[in-house]
Every structure is written in structure tokens, then in C-alpha cells.
Amino acid sequence: MNQFLSFVKKEFRHIFRDKRTMLILLGMPIAQIILFGFAITTEVQNIRVAVLDSSKDISTQRIIDRIDASKYFNIAQTIHNYDEVDKVFQCGDADLVIVFEERFNENLIHTGKAQIQLIADATDPNTATTEINYITSIINSVQLELMGTNFVPIQIIPEIRMLYNPQMKSAYNFVPGVMGLILMLVCSMMTSISIVREKEMGTMEILLVSPMRPIYIVLSKVMPYFLLSCVNLTTILLLSVFVLGVPVAGSLFWLILVSFVFIVVSLSLGMLISTLAVNQVAAMLMSGMVLMMPVLLLSGMIFPIENMPQILQWLSNIIPARWYISAIRKLMIEGTAITFVLKELAILLFMAFFFITVSLKKFKIRLQ
Amino acid sequence: MVTVQNITKQYGKTEALKNVSFSTGVGEIFGIIGPDGAGKTTLFRILTTLLLPDSGTAIVNGLDVVKDYKQIRNNVGYMPGRFSLYQDLTVEENLNFFAAVFNTTVKENYYLIKGIYKQIEPFKKRKAGALSGGMKQKLALSCALVHKPEVLFLDEPTTGVDPVSRKEFWEMLKDLKKQGITILVSTPYMDEAALCDHIALIQLGRIMSINTPQQIVAEYRNKLYATKSESNYRLLKQLKLRSDVASCYISGEYLHVVFKNNTAPFIENVEIHNIQPTIEDCFIQLMGVNNVDR
Q1: Which residues, in sequence order, are CB contacts of A76 under 8 Å at separation 6+?
Q2: Do A7 and B52 touch (CB under 8 A)?
Q3: CA distance B85 to chain A (A)
Q4: d(CA A194, CA A184)
Q5: What distances in angstroms separate CA B58 from CA A196, B132, B203, one per listed residue?
């Protein structure tokens, strides 16, 4: 026991004395959460709207008021001539122009049809699409209200509803992804590098020629990273709840438990990498190429798995982070019960068991 | 104490060790002498259970290196050729850590390492990476000794260490020998061979001779002559062309020459005198390689 504790203490000394490692270990979660949460955001805010209102009646005013009230749109100016539309865009005074046809209210009441033209600056097509989507949903809701009061025959209106993320907050999407990414990186990359460093420095030779059993050597190398991962998990959860405003909708207990299982999977992957890599650079590349890229691209963190080609969907199945992110989305954002996450949990447990078995089998009690 | 029988080890097609056999007595310093690439490190790794031999057996302290590797790891001390301690830990932390790994404390066996550790104790708060070469070796030796091993394996402990520290290091080994510890030490320095009780001369994975240093020198078959001129290289070339020269090589500021009829001929303007051979001369003779520039 004293053997084990001394080893863990020594391991912490390595970590604390290496300022750069410390920075990566503890700074990365904060940087990533803030980056993904604020900087890399797909939501749009403060869209400047110019209005060309040729009818100036009760309905158009209602729509304009409603748009102005939304926190996404500001009515920047009103224009009086269709020719001004181009000018407004070119001067950069507006991102979006709304044009109401003449006699808007009359048309709406008598024919049940009125036209609004939405003109967006599509130089950034993604933003333009988002803007149009937002504003359409506002117009739709006004239209519904008008119909209710005027008993106009019901029109079929496309219903746009954003499940779980009504404001399409991208932070909701990114928090589980960042959790998966960071835990994977800290556990796998750092563990594998620190074990391989012992090999590279030659200290593994002395450790092997000692009464300490190889399994304890590995366990005591892994232990500090397990504890650090717990610290990171706490940081991420606190940041996402209090800074990004993403609530923990489901059970915190299960959220943490599933995270522990994922941490164990990542640690055992790190152990496996350390048995394969001959030096620190190889360990770094392996964890970077084998873990980080797939986690970023295939786990559903950035691109939805459903939209991938079939072959990539199959490939994504073997990525632990995919199951973890899916479980966390359900537990944290959707707030479902653990019974709906059993599949993910079972797969993660199996992966943990598999990787631990393989890496213990592969751990060399000798140099070759 | 250590018995090696017909150990062979290959890396791919390269034969690192070929039919190596020797045995050491209890409480002696046994030197494995040979140049780089002779197979010394491979041999040490097999004896410390870090590598498996392809064939042959080795017994350390009555235990088989393959079957009983766990017990062997309890009671041998190993100092690898490269400095293998934690550079970011202090001297004291390194020592305490290795003591803990071996289930002991520094206090328990302090008497054993006292002589060595005393010299680096003033720097105990210094990071191991910031120590000088000689001090690093002393720390590494302290760490290898802290659990009171019965056999100590030192792989090239003095390589890259200054002459004064090398001398001190060998003094320490003599002290340890008095404590009854069997020491296997490898070195490429021929002058250190004379400080061992027994030596094995190893070259290209084969042991050429095993004996006491004195006996190895005594078995030198020829008369050895030393010679010197203003230009040793010109002289070397000149001697090599002579039909009566069996072997000729540079040793320090002299040329060492062996003549076929064991008598020195008269060469104009060149002073030749008879000398006692050293281990290095024996080594060169045993290699059977003539006219090697050294």
C-alpha cells in the first residue's frame, strides 16, 4: 500500500512540476467550454432589420412589433422605396429586409392571403438561413393569432418546432461533446504519454526490476489522471450550468456515474496505447489520430450521425465518445431517465472491460 | 552467485549473444569487459529478467531468470547504462521513491548507502536533472542499493563520467564488496578491468576469455614492444609493411608492436623497448585482428 501511495505521490509531483502539462490538463476544459460555448456559435443575435411597409396597417404593425420585441432582431430602419433595398445592404446597414405588400391587412382579411417578402444577405448562407427560419417562425405565430381573431379559413402552416433547444442554443449541443472530448484527451493521451515516458527515460527498466507488480505500476500511473478527470468533469459541469446556462435536466447521479464509466474506458484506452507506442511522440500521434479526430468528426459532436454515409455510421459505433455523448445528451439536456440510456451504458461497460483485458494482456512484464 | 550457461540471444539476424557461459563467486566484483555493441547490455538485461534468452539458462542467487523472475526482482539491484532516475524529482525524493517501491525505507538500510549518499546529501533538495554526471551516478547507485540487494548489476556505470569520479566510484564498489554484495559490472574501459576480481572479455556476443586480470595478462603469449616517433602514423604505415611484424596498433602516445620472432629488429631513428602488456593488449590479441588502428 505504501508502495502504491508513494507511486501516486510521485506521479502527482510529475504533473504539478510540469507547468505546461498542468495548463493543458486544467486549462483545456475551461478554454474549450468557453470556445465552443461562445466563440464557435451557430446562433445569430442582434440581426438588423430594415422594413419597407407600403400599407402601414394594423397587421403589419403587429408583425413589426413582434419582430422588434424578439431578442434576435432589431428594427434598424424603415425604408420607403424598393430601390433602397440594395443600398441598405451595400452600406451594411441591415442584414435582412422585410417588404410588406400594399393593402396587406385588406388582402389578408378578404382573400386570406397576404404577401411578405423576406430578403436576406446570403453572402453567409448559413446565417441567412438561420435568420429566415427565425423570422418565418415569428411571422407564422402572428399569422396564427390573426386567423384566430378573424375566423379566416385555416391555412396549412409549416410548424417549426425546435425540440429541447427552442432557441437553437448551440451550447446545448456542444457541452456533451466537449465533455467527451476532454475526458478522452486527458485520460487517454496523458496516461499513455506518461507511461511511455517511463519507457523512454529508462525508468521503466528499474521499475520492472523491482518487487512492484506490473499491474500496480500501471494502476498507480492511471490513478492521478482519474482524479484529474473528476476535477475536469466538475469544472465542465459548473461552467456549463453557471456560465453557459445549460441546465442539468436529468439525474446528476447517473450523469456522474456514466461519466465515470467513460473515464475508465478512456484510461484503459490510454493503457492500451502505451503498450503499443514506443515513444512519447508515437503515443501523442496515436491518441491524436486514433482518438481526437474520430471523436471530433464521428461522435456526433459536430456532424449528426444520422446524416453520415452508412459506412461512417458503422464506424462511429466503435467510438466510445459517440455513446457517451449520446448518453449525456439524453441525461443532461433531454432529462430522460436512466432506463433510456441503458444501451449506451452497457456498450461503454463492455468497452471498458474489453480494453482493460486487452491492455493487461498486452502489458509487457519484460522489455520485449 | 550468478551462473550463466550457453546463453544465446538474437535480434532478428543479429547475434547479440552467442553461447555465453560464466559463473561468479559470492561477494566478488565480476567485470564484463568489451567495446560498445559487444552484447554487454543484452547480457545484463537477461540477468535482470528484462529479456528472455533464446536458449541457455541463467541462475541468479539460486533462481532461474525465466521461471523465478518475480523472486529475482525482489533481491537484485540494477543500474541501467543510461541515467534512469526521475529528472524532475529531487535527490531525496528519488531515493525515497525507490525505497518505497522496494518496500523499505531509506532509514532501514542507510548504513549501506551512507558512504555514497553522504557525498550528495548537501544537494538533496536539488532536482536530479541538475546534478553533474558523477553525482548522478552516485545517486543512481544509492537508489539501486537502497533495498540491500544481494546481487548488484551495474551496466556501464562509469561511461561519461570524469576520471576523478570514476576512481571514486570504484572505491565505493570495493566498499560494497566488503559488505558481501556480489557485483557484476560492465565497462568499455580496459583500465577498469584491473580493479575487478574476475573479468570476462566479450566481443561480438562471444566471451573470449574469463580469468583474473592478473592471469589474463600473464597468459599474454608474445613479447610486446612499445615504440614512438615524431609521426606515429608514418611509423605505423612503415611497420605494417614489414614482413616481420605480426601486429601493430596505436595505444595512447605509443605504438604497440608484436614481432613474429618475438625480438625487436633495429630500425633507424626509432626507439623500441619491451613493455608489460595491459588488459587492452590482451583484448586486442584475443580479438585476433591484426593491424587494427586503435
Answers
A1: A48, A49, A50, A93, A94
A2: no
A3: 6
A4: 15
A5: 29, 36, 20
Single-letter amino acid, residue B279 = I
Give domain limits for chain B. Answer: 2-212, 220-287
Nearest CB to B50: which of A17, A18, A209? A209
Best B50, B61, B65, B139 member to test A by mutation, with max A CBs in 10 Å, is B50
Q: Which of residues 21-80 of A touch B (CB under 8 A)?
A: none
Assign A164 to helix, strand or coil. coil
pLDDT in tens, A3-25: 899 999 999 999 999 888 888 88
- Kindly state whether A3 is in contact with chain B, defined as any CB-CB distance less than 8 angstroms: yes
Cβ of residue A19 closer than 8 Å to a chain B Cβ? no
Q: What is the ipTM of this complex?
A: 0.85
First to last CA, chain A: 28
Q: Which residues contact B109 (CB under 8 A, 6 or more apart)?
A: B99, B145, B146, B147, B148
- In chain B, which residues have their Cβ closer than 8 Å to the Cβ of A212? 101
Residue-level length of chain B: 294
| CATH 3.40.50.300 is held by the domain B2-212 | yes
pTM for the full predicted model: 0.77
Cite the beta strand spans of chain A per DSSP E.
47-53, 73-79, 96-100, 116-120
Max CA distance (Å), chain A:
93
Query: Are B89 and A210 inside 8 Å of each other by CB?
Result: no
Domain positions in chain A: 2-40+169-362, 47-150
Give B90's DSSP letter: B
Are A10 and B93 inside 8 Å of each other by CB?
yes
Specify whether domain A47-150 bears CATH 3.30.200.20.
Answer: no
For chain B, which residues lie within 8 Å of any Cβ of chain A, measuring from their own Cβ? Answer: 45, 48-52, 69, 73-74, 76, 78, 80, 82-89, 93, 96-98, 100-103, 143-144
Q: Contact, B225 vs B275, CB < 8 A?
A: yes
Nearest-angstrom CA–CA distance, B186 and B44 = 9
Q: pLDDT per position in chain B (294 positions), as tens?
A: 899 999 999 998 888 999 999 999 999 999 999 988 889 999 999 999 999 999 999 999 899 999 999 999 988 999 998 888 999 999 999 999 999 999 999 998 898 888 889 889 999 999 999 998 888 999 999 999 999 999 999 999 988 888 888 888 999 899 999 988 999 999 988 889 989 999 999 998 999 899 999 999 888 888 899 988 888 888 888 888 888 888 888 888 888 998 888 888 877 778 888 898 988 888 888 887 433 443
Select the residue from A4, A21, A197, A205 to test the B interface by mutation, using most B Cβ atoms within 10 A. A205
Nearest chain A residue to B81, by CA = A202
Q: Which residues of A touch B73 (CB under 8 A)?
A: 208-211
DSSP bridge partners of A128: none
DSSP string, A55-74: S--HHHHHHHHHHHHSTTEE
Which of B89, B93, B102 faces A210 most closely, judged by CB atoms? B102
Kind plus residue range of the DSSP H or E element containing B9: strand B2-11
Measured distance CA(A91)–CA(A95) in Å, rounded = 10
Cα separation of A326 and B31, whole Å? 63
Topology of domain B220-287 in CATH is: Alpha-Beta Plaits (3.30.70)
